[in-house]
């Protein structure tokens, strides 16, 4: 019998220094937030959720097929956003721009849908989470968000797609790479 695993497909990113400054200043506003650990900074291409461990091989095949013929590409990190909106933010994020990231997400989702792999059906918005907000944002936090909203945070190269296991703990999620597909 296979164990149940919580999975998602992602592209890892490096946590840029300007975002470290924003995160530090955000904490300084007194807003209760849980910052994403820099080693967990990523773009989720597809959240799969809980499945039996036997699904990993099927998902790996789908990822390899989806990535076939795609080479490495660059994305820009530009602008901040909030879900659902800044005044009621639950999640603060940085936008990830580039047509290739959208094409990659489309191919991954199409391949996994074709294999019957479960997944979130929300429209893909390329972003990387910075923080989870624990209370309604205060004026100081909203002012900081507006000040930084249009900033550029640099470009990064994307050369791998990963299937990750997420283990939820009281201290935050622990991510483990189960499959790494190189873009060539």
Commentary on this structure:
- The structure is a single chain.
- With 184 residues, the protein is an alpha+beta fold.
- The chain has one domain (4-182): Cyclic phosphodiesterase (Cyclic Phosphodiesterase, Chain: A).
- It has 4 helices and 9 strands; from the N terminus they run E-H-E-E-H-E-E-H-E-H-E-E-E.
- It has helices at residues 17-28, 55-67, 99-114, 139-148, and strands spanning 4-12, 33-35, 42-52, 73-83, 91-97, 127-133, 152-158, 160-167, 174-182.
- The strands form 2 sheets. It has a 5-stranded antiparallel beta sheet. A 4-stranded antiparallel beta sheet has the order 3-1-8-9, covered by helices on one side.
- A hairpin with a 6-residue loop joins strand 8 and strand 9 (174-182).
- Helix 2 (55-67) packs across helix 3 (99-114).
- The longest helix has 16 residues, at 99-114.
- It is globular.
- It starts with a strand and ends with a strand.
Helix-strand blueprint:
Layout: E1 4-12, H1 17-28, E2 33-35, E3 42-52, H2 55-67, E4 73-83, E5 91-97, H3 99-114, E6 127-133, H4 139-148, E7 152-158, E8 160-167, E9 174-182
Antiparallel strand pairs: 1-3, 1-8, 2-6, 4-5, 4-7, 5-6, 8-9
Helix pairs in contact: 2-3
């Amino acid at each position: 019998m296979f164990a149940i695993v919580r999975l998602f497909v992602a592209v890892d990113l490096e946590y840029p220094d300007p975002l470290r400054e924003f995160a530090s200043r955000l904490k300084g506003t007194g807003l209760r937030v849980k910052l994403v650990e820099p080693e967990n900074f990523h773009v989720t291409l597809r959240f799969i959720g809980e499945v039996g461990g036997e699904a990993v091989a099927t998902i790996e095949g789908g990822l390899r097929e989806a990535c076939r013929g795609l080479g490495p590409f660059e994305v820009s990190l530009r602008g901040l956003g909030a879900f659902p909106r800044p005044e009621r933010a639950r999640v603060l994020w940085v936008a990830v721009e580039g047509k290739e990231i959208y094409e990659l997400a489309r191919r991954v989702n199409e391949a996994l849908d074709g294999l019957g792999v479960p997944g979130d059906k929300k429209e893909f918005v390329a972003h990387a989470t910075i923080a989870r907000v624990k209370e309604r944002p205060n004026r100081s936090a909203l002012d900081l968000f507006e000040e930084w909203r249009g900033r550029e945070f640099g470009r990064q190269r994307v050369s791998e797609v990963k299937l990750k296991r997420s283990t939820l703990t009281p201290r935050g999620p622990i991510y483990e790479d189960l499959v790494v597909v190189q873009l060539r």
